[in-house]
Write a structure and sequence with these properties.
The chain is an alpha/beta fold and about 260 residues long. It folds into 2 domains: about 200 residues, 3-Layer(aba) Sandwich (Rossmann fold); about 35 residues, no CATH class. About 45% of the residues lie in helices and about 15% in strands. The protein is built from 9 helices and 7 strands; from the N terminus they run E-H-E-H-E-H-E-H-H-E-H-E-H-H-H-E. Strands 3-2-1-4-5-6-7 form a 7-stranded parallel β-sheet, with helices on both faces. Helix 2 links the parallel strand 2 and strand 3. Helix 1 crosses helix 9, helix 4 crosses helix 6 and helix 7 crosses helix 8. The radius of gyration is 18 Å and the shape is globular. The mean pLDDT is about 95.
């Protein structure tokens, strides 16, 4: 299927690895000109070089910037005055419990997983409206719909982003601008490796047993692949998805227990 987005311009937040990179690759495969982002210039240089070789017919660039800082976002907006596609993403807060959620921890969570996305949306969405095309996809978490106690900070900030984007989506749908959310669960990325190592340490397990336990928590009996996640993102950015907005798509191997 031709997704009808060849030649569009996309910015993918926090995309030197993991889910952000998976989305960048999927968009590049559709002929989208991509700009990836991170804080490690050497990693970004290497990833950009690899993508440029794999996808020689598109423009591949990177911007070194810390999304959590106002000057980082300003650098992004200066380098990219307009985009057609925005994929928001950022690493989540450390797991913790109620005693860990002091005021500064709450602020840091919002500054990582809520404020950057909203500020980039505010900056770029008017141009999307004026051009009659825009796709915004937020990479959040399955815990937006199924909160886990130890991930309360991440859940709260990402749920706030989901709510504000739902509100925005109703106002801009008439301009062919959509806002949707991808909720991953156990996708095989460095973030899952981090969580796996935490399980190994806390439960005194070997790696194989820890991974088996995680896989058994998924109805499909396996981790999801980054390629599966990226493909879902690319479709939500497509011409064919213009009637889908304000929605939540879970990528969890069928694990969610609820109906809605």
């Amino acid at each position: 299927m031709d997704l009808g987005i060849r030649g569009k311009i996309a910015f993918i937040c926090a995309s030197s690895q993991g889910l952000g990179l998976a989305c960048a690759k999927a968009l590049a495969a559709e002929g989208v000109n991509i700009t990836i982002n991170g804080r490690d210039v050497s990693k970004l240089t290497e990833v950009t070089r690899t993508l440029a070789v794999k996808f020689p017919d598109i423009n591949v660039n990177f911007i070194v910037a810390d999304l959590t800082r106002e000057e980082g976002r300003a650098a992004i907006l200066t380098a990219l005055p307009h985009v057609d596609i925005l994929i928001t993403n950022n690493a989540g807060p450390q797991p913790g419990a109620l005693q860990d959620w002091h005021e500064m921890a709450l602020r840091i969570a919002m500054e990582a997983n809520f404020i950057p996305a909203v500020q980039l949306i505010r900056a770029w969405i008017p141009g999307m409206q004026s051009r009659g095309f825009g796709r915004i996809v937020n990479i959040t978490s399955a815990m937006v719909k199924s909160p886990h106690y130890m991930m309360g900070l991440s859940t709260s900030a990402r749920t706030a982003l989901t709510a504000i984007c739902k509100a925005i989506s109703r106002d801009v749908a008439k301009d062919n601008v959509t806002l949707n959310n991808l909720l991953p669960e156990r996708i095989d990325t460095p973030r899952q490796e981090f969580m796996l190592q935490r399980l190994i340490k806390n439960e005194n397990l070997d790696r194989d047993e820890a991974r088996r336990r995680n896989e058994q928590s998924i109805a499909a009996g396996r981790y999801g692949s980054p390629e599966e996640f990226g493909a879902a993102c690319a479709f939500l950015c497509s011409r064919q998805a213009s009637f889908i907005s304000g929605q939540i798509l879970q990528l969890d191997g069928g694990s969610y227990d609820g109906l809605i």
